[in-house]
Amino acid sequence: MNIRGVIFDKDGTLFDFQSTWGIWTAQVLARIAGSDEALLQQLAEALGYDTQTRRVQPGSVIVAATPMDIAAVVKDCIPALSQTQICGWLNEEAKTAPQVLVTDLHRLTAELRRINLGLCVMTNDAETPARAHLASVQASGLFDFVIGSDSGFGAKPQAAPLLALADKMEIPAAACVMVGDSTHDLRAGRAAGMRAVAVLTGLAEADELAPLADAVLPDVSHLPAWISAQNS
């Protein structure tokens, strides 16, 4: 079956992961820990973050978890705070996280529209920050639908949010491809009966992603050529 729809992950796929979330994590740690250096280091270790290089480490909960998952890790370090309160802080900080695109999204989506594809975004980030991130790079109107882990459809690696987007596009799941930088993305695509394409603009290496992927691409700019080849 030809590919008719594409579902993109956001962070590490459309946006460079470290340029966004390395900076965001530093902001979050500063907000929560304040001047308590010992607490800051405790939080950094729990979250898998290197405060010296300001980089998220492979295997960090930040890579593919939902804001509530990250809030649970923070709460273990600060039991006096509620998980809901922490999650609110995370989402507020996320709205203003700096966004660095992997490629020109206007050009990429124009190429994909020329071959008549539906285009969506499914992120384990919350929906409001996700929409803010797209708006910050003038990309709000480039996608048919955008949902997050709090949009009522679940989170990756569950299949449900991807199936919901296929339904919204009125495209069979088997005619969709999930594009992402993590094993969560690829497992969700497989569970939904979609093709799965990995990109190397997140933290995962090719040998980790390849067993779950139909293809491993350097970045999303290579996607139109790959889809055209599949549909030929």
UniProtKB/TrEMBL annotation:
<dbReference type="Pfam" id="PF00702">
    <property type="entry name" value="Hydrolase"/>
</dbReference>
<dbReference type="InterPro" id="IPR006439">
    <property type="entry name" value="HAD-SF_hydro_IA"/>
</dbReference>
<keyword id="KW-0378">Hydrolase</keyword>
<dbReference type="GO" id="GO:0008967">
    <property type="term" value="F:phosphoglycolate phosphatase activity"/>
</dbReference>
<dbReference type="GO" id="GO:0006281">
    <property type="term" value="P:DNA repair"/>
</dbReference>
<dbReference type="InterPro" id="IPR036412">
    <property type="entry name" value="HAD-like_sf"/>
</dbReference>
<dbReference type="InterPro" id="IPR023214">
    <property type="entry name" value="HAD_sf"/>
</dbReference>
<dbReference type="InterPro" id="IPR050155">
    <property type="entry name" value="HAD-like_hydrolase_sf"/>
</dbReference>
<dbReference type="InterPro" id="IPR023198">
    <property type="entry name" value="PGP-like_dom2"/>
</dbReference>
<comment type="pathway">
    <text>Organic acid metabolism; glycolate biosynthesis; glycolate from 2-phosphoglycolate: step 1/1.</text>
</comment>
<comment type="similarity">
    <text>Belongs to the HAD-like hydrolase superfamily. CbbY/CbbZ/Gph/YieH family.</text>
</comment>
<protein>
    <recommendedName>
        <fullName>phosphoglycolate phosphatase</fullName>
        <ecNumber>3.1.3.18</ecNumber>
    </recommendedName>
</protein>
